[in-house]
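Continuing the series of single-chain predictions for the mutant panel. This is the parent chain; the variants come on the following pages.
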Amino acid sequence: MAYVYILESIKDGRYYIGSTTNLKERLKHHEGGFTPSTKRFGGVKLVFSQYFASLRDARYLERRLKNLKRKDYLKKIIEDKYIKTTIPA
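Parent structure:
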């Protein structure tokens, strides 16, 4: 079991996309400032998470979302509370 998640910066509204097998522990790392990529965000809040059967599937989707670099698409995912996608076998 794994998750894809989106964090939002409290400071300026930027998004961070990640994947993990332990969402609770991963959020502690982000909130505690132990993750270099979100340390300068000035605090983060979890705005989206979705469960996947495997870490492989979650990482695949994480890469796809990061490659989009479209804030409007991320906002739509957050609003819908679901990622509509097909993961290759």
